[in-house]
Structure formats: C-alpha cells, structure tokens
From TrEMBL:
Name the UniProt record assigns to this protein: Iron-sulfur cluster loop
GO terms for biological process, alphabetical: DNA repair
Organism encoding this protein: Ignisphaera aggregans
Superkingdom, natural source: Archaea
One annotated GO molecular function: catalytic activity
Lineage: Archaea, Thermoproteota, Thermoprotei, Desulfurococcales, Desulfurococcaceae
Amino acid sequence: MPYINANKVKDAAKCFTKLDLKPMDLFDSRFYPSHNESLSNTLMYFLVMVAMDHRISRPGRLYKAVVDGEEYKGADLLYRLGMKMYESNPHFFSPENLSKIGEEDVVSWLSVGDATPPDPKVRAILLKDLGSKIMRMFSGNPDEIIRICEGFLRKEDGLGLLDILRMFKAYSDPVEKKSMLLVKFLSYRGILNVADVKNIRVPVDNHLTRIALRLGLVTLEEYLEDKVRKEEEVSYDEDIIIRYSVREAYRYLSSYANLNAFHLDDFLWNFGRTTCLRDSPQCFRCFLRYICRAYETKMFLNEHNFYNTWYY
C-alpha cells in the first residue's frame, strides 16, 4: 500500500506557509456565467461542465484550438466552449435537454478546428444520466440538491452534497475528484456555504498526483513505483489507492500549513501546468526543490497511467 510520508508533508507545509494563496477567478466571463445569472442556470452550468472535466487531452492528442482569436487548450478550451454554448443556447444545459442528448450533440458542441473530444459516447452517457436523474429525482429542479444538503457535504442521513452527487454516474468517483471540484466552484460562486469544512478535500487530478509523487509526500511500494516509472497502466483499484493517498497527504499539508484546501488546489493545479511539468519540470524556479525527492534523486516520476476513466 502507498504510505504518506509525514516528514515530507511537514517540510512542504513549512514552504507553503510563506505563500499568500489566492482563489481562482470564477467570474471570468470567458469561462463562467456572470454573477447576474440565476442560481438554477449557474448551478446547471457547473454541474455539466465539471461532469465533462476529465481526460479531454490524451497522449499525442492535445485538445487545443483558437477561439475568437485566442488559443486555448485542455480544460481552458473545454470551459471556453462551455460558455460559447451557454451564451448562444442556455437551454442546452437544462435537465430536460440533457436527458435527450446524443453523441453527435457532444461532438458538435466540443469540436472546434482540429480539436474534438476523445470519448463523445461516454460524455453523452454521463450527460444523459445527469439530466434524467435530475428530472426524475428532483422534478427537474437542480436547486433542490442545494436545499436538501443544507450546506453539508456529508450528513448522517446520507443527504449531504457529496452523498447526493454520488448518484450521478459522472460524480461516482470513489476519490471524489469531480465532486470536490464542483464544491469548490459552487462555494467560490456563493451558491454553497459549506457547513462542514472538515470534510473539504482537494480534487485530485494528474497534476496534483504528479507533484505529490515527485515531492515524496506519498511513497509507493516498489512494484507500484516500478509500474509508474515504466508508464505501465495501473489497475482500477491501484488508481483509486494512489489518488486517495495523494488526497489525504494534501489534507495533512493544508492542515499543517493552515491553508484553505481549495486555495491550495488552485495553486497546485496551475503549478503543475507551469512549473512541475510532466516532461520538462522547471526545477530552477521551484520553491520546493530543496525538499523535493525527485530533485534530490533525479528520478522524476510522472502521474500513474490510467487513461480509460471519466473520474478525472
């Protein structure tokens, strides 16, 4: 089993206490609805877009295109196309429409230039499941999800937001990447005031996993580290075990450093895209290099190989 290196976590926490972490801008009109939009419309937008926020780029197949004269790639392009659709046809995001959506609708929506989604059939299934269940379980009113959870992520009656989200296929990840990302977005937008902040965790994706493994926050047993180093595909269970360990390591780090876990996630996500890069880490400008296992050993592990998933 992977284990969390408490000493490394504490060393990293000391480095992070020197930073002034700020939340991302969830009102950037290129990617997100304005503050004037209704709660229902904004909630549906984020439910849909986070449901789509997985594996949009693949090895050798970068999701990249120019939209309105500006180049976007990966998640930035995904959310840019989300807002383009929202501005032209907000009904697209309604539970009623989602319940009838098809693969061809996803291809039409998320394709621009040479960029096209790698798994449109899966994405259509996720959206149809989301729309159908909101129609059936909540009478087509997504606001009910927020009302029922009462601000709690987990409740003894099983009706916390994380509990409710689990009924949707798109949000069924045991490590709750998309669910935590949605919680972050909704809290930043003022739609959700989290009552049980102790249950907040970072939404673990490739960037956060890569950073944790390189720093040595999480140590893999020899056979698993060997698979990661050779870029062999891990199993379903191994993927969950690795990501869960990474999630808990960051929980301890945010606690030791007295950081908002979501602000930490914002920083790490950007850090993984600009500094701790997959193929060419920019160690010369990394404030963590002197406590980094990879920098010390010159063995730069990447995130584990598990691409056939909609969890993250």
